[in-house]
Design a protein that fits this description.
The complex is a heterodimer.
Chain A: H1 2-19, H2 31-46, H3 52-63, H4 70-89, H5 94-111, H6 117-138, H7 141-156, H8 161-174, H9 179-191, H10 195-207, H11 217-229, H12 233-245, H13 250-266, H14 270-283, H15 288-300, H16 304-312, H17 314-317, H18 325-329, H19 334-350, H20 352-361, H21 366-374
Chain B: E1 5-10, E2 29-35, E3 45-54, E4 58-65, E5 68-73, E6 78-83, E7 91-99, E8 104-111, E9 118-133, E10 136-137, E11 146-150, E12 153-155, E13 157-162, E14 167-174, H1 182-196, E15 203-209, E16 213-216, H2 223-229, H3 241-252, E17 258-265, H4 276-286, E18 289-295, H5 311-328, E19 332-335, H6 341-353, E20 356-361, E21 370-378, E22 384-386, E23 390-393
Parallel strand pairs in B: 14-15, 14-17, 17-18, 18-19
Antiparallel strand pairs in B: 1-9, 2-3, 3-6, 4-5, 4-7, 7-8, 9-10, 9-20, 9-22, 11-12, 11-21, 13-20, 15-16, 21-23
Classes of the chains: A mainly alpha, B alpha+beta.
Chain lengths: 375, 394
């Protein structure tokens, strides 16, 4: 009885969250047939079958057409029927279901292609809705924290910076202590050139743990660079110097030294820039970037012969240099992906058995589900 | 013709600035420095000598430079050799003669550094000019057809040539992930076409870069070495155009003659640590021609933002790259199809072969680090001249 009520409320809630009023059904495919196919794929996922994401992509792509918005409504209705069934048994299944749709969304963003806009939007929206529902209906701090990480993980694969910012914002609202969500949000702001917004978010992040403002060294680095871009040079130097002198990680140390030297050079302190670069080269002797920068600094102060000598060592550094710190900085923090690996995926995997049993309680044997796909 | 830098320093020795303080108080003992001379410029091993007169016997004569004793002599002649080193600075020399009774006399003088009050810097300026009429190169011009202006003053041509001057080129190929697949293969083939067209006296280097250096060769005329580097590369990573364009220009500085950078890239710098303004400065100093084979899908460039620069800053970088190319006297060769890459490389080599080389000694040089505007005019109707905009007078 309680299960039925819960199931009914979920149908309505899902419909409200994503579409407002349930849309009129118009299409050649039987809703039950669509729900059945989706149920089968969920069964595969519940049994950790490696085919499940590909099958979901194939299934959804065959139903949704960018040319006909009603196709998305049709699919959504079928999938929410199944989700209501299983979530009615145990709300924890929302976690692996959200991850399943995240994986499908990740597939679309990675592969792109014509005609996938609607289906990609569908999966992103559904993954988000499921995370929000989980947070709202489970209602514990642990659920909020997990939902926050589900959303941050979704944001980290978003190909659209506006959507990513929105998702990171939601993730940080779901759990105000989710530092990596704030780092993700700040990175999106920084990449879009919104430096004041990035600074505000990074300062919020550092304030999460006032005793340890350097808990997120990447945040400190980003804060310093954003401050510099806002002409708050002295503050930037104050943050960068310790990172350059005692690097928490090699890539951050390398970047801190480069940027500190750049700022000093721009401030017409070439001797300070040179000192920073020479110290960094002792730590990272195979850094082509530091070598180039030192050559430029020497050149700017008139030591052209020395600059050429420094540059000639580039050939010795050669092709095997793994000097990718600047490339890495231009991407979302690895902390986000690490967080996803360490929290979201284990959480989803732990709940797969629950998903399987929820399906079973709705009289959909897993073996039959797998047979369905095989056919 | 090599790039000559003839520096004549004419030291103007000012009048003697003797700080002689011959000790007249000690009438029985007089001393005078006879070497070095007042106002002389002193470098390396230098003779210090003094003449001592008087009725009293001499105990010793001690020489001081900058207040520090550098030696003493007890018997005539009162002289010694002291190494002044190679610093071009003013020095104060002092000599003290001590009599056997305890009396003393002294003399002092100052030497001067080489005064560069008048520095005649005769630098042969070489301009490489492409003359076009209706987009076709004009190849039948004579020295009398050209007029060269340096900071507005007409200059006299001391040499005139066309095309046959050897060149030192750096082929700077973007090998970032946007070049993956057939595009990098086409780029390598194009660069190999350039190498194949080189003459024995030409030299080149290959630099393949992404956000890091992928492959490089020394500057060489050995085509096998160059082709080896151009045989295979896996395009990957981001792009750091500024960093490696700077490196190419800097490395060319030590090579004489006609210096050329051929850059192949979509121009979208993302990961450089150097800004294009630093590259622009280096381009002005190096005086190398920059040819940019720009890979794009039309004449419109793409604006973008990254964690390193926002939209405006990236647009500025594009502007400065275009400016660097334009100022250098090179040009942008826009390519929308990969299959046109080989033609682009060959076309640049052909253009280099057909350039006019105009040489003159500037009458306006002041070695003041200022930008000199250069203007080349051709006495022919309907023609357009492309050459570098100027140079830094250093």
């Amino acid at each position: 009885m309680v299960g039925n009520l819960l199931r009914t409320s979920f149908v309505l809630l899902l419909a409200f969250l994503s579409f407002g009023q349930p849309a009129a059904w118009a299409g050649p495919l039987d809703p039950e047939a669509l729900a059945s196919s989706y149920r089968t794929i969920v069964g595969l996922w519940a049994h950790n079958d490696p085919r499940s994401v590909d099958e979901l992509v194939r299934f959804e792509s065959s139903v949704i057409s960018d040319k006909d918005p009603r196709t998305r409504e049709r699919l959504h209705k079928a999938e929410q029927t199944v989700i209501s069934e299983v979530a009615g048994v145990d709300l924890e299944v929302l976690v692996p279901l959200s991850v399943l749709h995240q994986e499908a969304y990740r597939h679309y963003t990675a592969h792109g292609g014509i005609g996938t806009a609607q289906v990609a939007t569908h999966d992103r929206t559904l993954a988000l809705d499921l995370a929000l529902l989980y947070k709202k209906h489970v209602g514990t701090p642990e659920a909020s924290a997990l939902a926050s990480r589900l959303i941050a993980r979704l944001a980290s694969v978003s190909s659209d910076s506006f959507q990513a910012a929105k998702l990171f914002q939601l993730a940080s609202e779901s759990d105000s202590k989710n530092g990596v969500a704030l780092l993700g949000l700040a990175t999106v702001f920084e990449k879009s050139g919104s430096y004041p917004d990035a600074v505000a978010v990074l300062e919020r992040l550092r304030a999460l743990d006032p005793e340890h403002p350097g808990k997120y060294p990447e945040a400190t680095l980003r804060l310093a660079l954003c401050l510099d871009r806002l002409d708050r040079r002295a503050e930037a130097i104050k943050l960068l110097a310790p990172l350059a002198e005692a690097p928490p990680t090699p890539w951050i140390g390398l970047l801190a030294a480069q940027e500190l030297a750049r700022i000093e050079q721009e401030a017409r302190h070439p001797e300070r820039a040179e000192k920073v670069l020479r110290a960094a080269l002792l730590r990272y002797p195979r850094s082509a970037r530091l070598t180039l920068q030192l050559a430029s600094t020497l050149d700017a102060r008139g030591a052209q012969q020395e600059a050429r000598s420094v540059l000639e060592s580039l050939a010795e550094i050669g092709a095997d240099s793994q000097d990718d710190s600047r490339y890495r900085y231009n991407r979302l923090s690895q902390d986000l992906f690490d967080d996803a690996d360490q929290v979201v995926e284990p959480a989803a995997n732990q709940r797969l058995a629950t998903l399987a049993s929820s399906l079973a309680s709705n009289s959909i044997p897993a073996a039959a589900a797998q047979d369905g796909v095989a056919r | 013709m090599s790039r000559h830098r003839l520096l004549f320093l004419a030291a103007l020795v000012a009048g003697a600035a003797t700080l002689t303080t011959a000790n007249a108080a000690q009438a029985s003992l007089q001393v005078k420095i006879t070497s070095p001379e007042p106002g002389q410029s002193v470098f390396g091993p230098t003779e210090l000598a003094a003449q001592v007169d008087g009725t009293e016997g001499i105990a010793r004569v001690e020489f001081f430079v900058g207040g520090r004793s550098v030696g003493s002599v007890a018997t005539p002649p009162y002289q010694l050799t002291w190494n002044a080193g190679d610093q071009n600075i003013a020095r104060e020399f002092r000599v003290v003669a001590y009599g056997i009774s305890g009396s003393s006399a002294s003399d002092a003088l100052a030497t001067k550094p080489v005064q560069i009050d008048e520095r005649l810097d005769l630098e042969l300026q070489q301009l490489y000019a492409t003359v076009l009429r209706d987009r076709q190169r004009v190849l039948n011009l004579n020295p009398a057809d050209f007029r060269v202006f340096d900071n507005g003053q007409e200059q006299e041509l001391v040499a005139f040539d066309r095309g046959e001057l050897p060149l030192s080129a750096i082929l700077l190929l973007d090998s970032s992930e946007s070049m993956q697949g057939k595009r990098i293969e086409a780029a390598l083939a194009g660069a190999r076409a350039f190498v194949a067209g080189m003459r024995p006296e030409d030299q080149a280097s290959v630099l393949l870069f992404s956000d890091r250096l992928m492959a490089s060769t020394p500057v060489t005329s050995d085509q096998a070495v160059l082709n080896q580097a151009l045989s295979q590369v896996e395009a990957a990573g981001g792009s750091a155009v500024n960093d490696y364009l700077f490196a190419a220009l800097k490395l060319l500085e030590s090579h004489q003659g006609r210096r050329v950078v051929v850059l192949l890239s979509d121009g979208a710098d993302i990961h450089s640590v150097l800004s294009m303004s630093e590259v622009l400065r280096e381009a002005r100093v190096s005086q190398a021609l920059i040819y940019w084979i720009a890979l794009d899908d039309g004449s419109k460039r793409k604006s973008f933002t990254s964690a390193w620069r926002n939209w405006e800053a990236n647009d500025r970088e594009f502007d400065r790259l275009e400016k660097a190319v334009d100022e250098s006297g090179g040009r942008i060769v826009r390519i929308s199809k990969d299959e046109d890459l080989a033609t682009a490389f060959s076309g640049i080599l052909e253009e280099l072969r057909e350039q006019y080389a105009l040489s003159y000694y500037s009458t306006t040089n002041k070695n003041d680090g200022r930008w000199h505007k250069v203007d080349v005019r051709v006495k022919a109707s309907g023609v357009r001249v492309r050459t570098r905009d100027g140079y830094i007078d250093y």
